[in-house]
Structure formats: C-alpha cells, structure tokens
Design a protein that fits this description.
CATH superfamily: Winged helix-like DNA-binding domain superfamily/Winged helix DNA-binding domain
Number of domains: 1
Radius of gyration: 14 Å
Shape: globular
Largest sheet: 4 strands, mixed
CATH topology: Arc Repressor Mutant, subunit A
Strand order of the largest sheet: 3-2-1-6
Number of helices: 4
Number of strands: 6
C-alpha cells in the first residue's frame, strides 16, 4: 500500500534518463551514471540524507522516507516544530536535487524516495 502511495503520479511524469546512481557508503559523494563524482563530504546534512535515501532505495526500491524519518536520520534527537522540520527537509531535498539528483529524487504524499527505475548501489 505504501509503495502505491509513493508512486502516485509516477506514471504521469516522463521517465528519468538516469540509469545508475553510485553512492559512497558515508554519503561523501555520489555519481550519476558514468559522470563525475559529486562531493558532499563538507555538507554533513546532505550526506546524511543521501545515505538515508540510498539505503532505502537499495533495501526496498520505491519505498518513501517520511519527513520524520529524515529528521531522525539527519538531526537525531533534535526536537523542532513541524513547520521548521518541513522547511529543513525541503531545503535539503532542493540542495540534493541541485547537485544532480533532480530527475531521480522523487516525492509523494508519504515522503521522498529515489526513482525505483534507477539502479542505486554503494561504491567505495
């Protein structure tokens, strides 16, 4: 049921041209297809989000990661107002999309996820 919610609207969007996303296990960098590494190690929150999304994509492609799960992964133990949490997550997602994952980083009512048609894998 959750995958169906996450994929709502998926059929209406054009398919991604991206086929593979390689991610360093620490989130220090990612690579789209055979492109250059995009380094994230100086952006700890971006790295943490990248690891969370990649982990979920590898374990269960298409399963969304909720805002609360992202907050727990990126800012563990920190208590913030819902509006602040929403803004923080939106800024992180926008940043990650701007770094090169725009066509791959999707969202639905249940949360954010990497395109299940794209192969996501760890690469050291």
């Amino acid at each position: 049921m959750m995958i169906a919610q996450a994929l709502e609207g998926y059929a209406r969007r054009p398919p991604s041209l991206v086929r593979n996303v390689s991610v360093h296990p620490s989130g220090a960098w990612f690579r789209v297809d055979d492109g250059p590494r995009v380094h994230c190690q100086t952006r700890k929150t971006v790295s943490a989000l990248l690891v969370k999304l990649a982990s979920e994509a590898i374990q269960s492609a298409g399963t969304p990661v909720s805002r609360n799960e992202i907050m727990d992964a990126v800012w563990p133990g920190e208590k913030v107002l819902q509006a602040s949490a929403k803004n923080r997550v939106a800024v992180l997602v926008t940043t990650l999309r701007g770094l090169g994952l725009r066509s791959v980083l999707l969202n639905g009512n249940a949360g954010y996820y990497l395109d299940p048609c794209v192969r996501v894998h760890w690469d050291a």
